[in-house]
Amino acid sequence: TMELRNRFKFIMMLSAVLCMPFLASCSDDDDEDDGGGSTSGEATMTIPSSIVDGVQVSNVSGGNNLNMTYNTDGTINTATLGNMTFQFVYEGSTTAKAPQKVEAFATNGRDLLKIILTDGDDYSTYEATGFKFDSNTGFLLSFTENTKESYGSDEWEKVTSKYTFSYNSDGTLKSTYCEGKYSDSDGENDNIKATKNFTYSDGNLTKAEVKDGGYGMSMSFEYKDHSLVNKFNKLIPPIAAGLSTGESYITYIFAMTGYLGNGSKLLPTKFVERNWGPAEDGDPAYDEYDTYTVSYTFDDKQHIKSIVCFDGTDDCYYLFDYLIYE
Questions:
Q1: I want to staple 258 with a disulfide (CB 3.0 to 4.6 A). Which of 39, 50, 96, 144 is the partner?
Q2: Nearest-CA neighbor of 249 among 6, 83, 47, 62?
């Protein structure tokens, strides 16, 4: 079975980046909506309104590292996730690395033309284009990914996927819609259309769920410590993974840097992952649960310094560094 075909078939269920899986929800939302915000958007990428006091993530270590570099106007220059480096290409700009310093918090932005994979072996080629951002919030509205994996001279797979995002009136992500097409050198073709919604209560993400052909995955979050206020409005890795779409590395990068909306008001203290599927090819049906407790440390300014997710046997940790927009 070809690798990209598996990724595409289970685009909502698989994981390659984090200790916990990528997922997106297909559940009901109990927050009032303002219509999803702008539907057209523009290509201009600015600093998103989710950034509080100019505090932006620059590095998250643990598992597969996320390392960001930024241009002097605050836009993303490069994003390295594990062994993959993505270059952000703007109109009228070069691909030269920018200094890790932002000269002004306010920015007029620049038009994001494409994101290309410059290093990494997950794809033979990767390009993301057609970016649209909300002109008021700076949140991502839509983009298209094109990936190709080649196996020798005459065997290949291609996936084209368009992602669309809408938001609740409080700036949290309401839904994602994915429409895509898979093709390969054997003549096989598949199509996918899926809408994913997210459930919140009192401004906190409480559940994300996805189902596909008898398979499913959900992630439920609990907030038991009301002193754990999300002061700087960050999407921590488990939640960023929950908001990301399938195996789109780019959506995870955008989530971690504030372009997929506001974070929960509180930081979760526990989450439960559930995975289920039918009997198939001689394997029995399964319904499995993993429960993680989440603990935090903070620096003297109350920035998140570290996160540990513990399932009773193993832990997954994250260490944070930040860039402060001046």
A1: 50
A2: 83
Q: Give the C-alpha separation, 252 to 240, whole Å.
A: 6
How confident is the model at residue 315, as a pLDDT? 84
Mean pLDDT of 17-34: 37
What is the dihedral angle through the alpha carbons of 313, 14, 27, 219, rounded to the nearest 10 degrees? 10
- Structural contact between residues 143 and 178, judged by C-beta atoms closer than 8 angstroms: no
- Tokens representing 118 are 């410059």
52: which DSSP letter?
Answer: -
Note whether 86 and 79 are within 8 A (CB). Answer: yes
Q: In angstroms, rounded to a whole number, what is the distance separating the alpha carbons of residues 175 and 33?
A: 11
**Structural tokens at position 152:** 């020798």
Q: Where are the beta strands (DSSP E) in the chain?
A: 44-45, 55-61, 66-70, 76-81, 84-90, 110-119, 125-133, 140-150, 156-167, 173-184, 189-197, 199-201, 204-212, 215-222, 270-277, 286-298, 304-310, 315-324
Take residue 298 and report the two structure tokens written for it: 């903070």
CB atoms within 10 A of CB 283: 9
Spatial CA neighbour of 4 closest among 163, 195, 151, 169: 151
Rounded mean pLDDT, 296-318: 92
Q: Is 297's pLDDT higher than 50?
A: yes
Could you tell me which of 45, 126, 141 has the C-alpha nearest to residue 87?
A: 126
Q: What is the DSSP string of 88-157?
A: EEETT---PPPPS--S-SS---EEEEEEEEEE-SS-SEEEEEEEEE-TTT--EEEEEEEEEEE-SSS-EE
Three-state DSSP state, 35: coil
* Whether 306 contacts 84, CB under 8 Å: no
Regarding beta strands 156-167 and 173-184, do their DSSP bridges make them parallel or antiparallel, or are they unpaired? antiparallel
DSSP letter at 243 equals H
Partners of 270 in the β-ladder: 222, 293
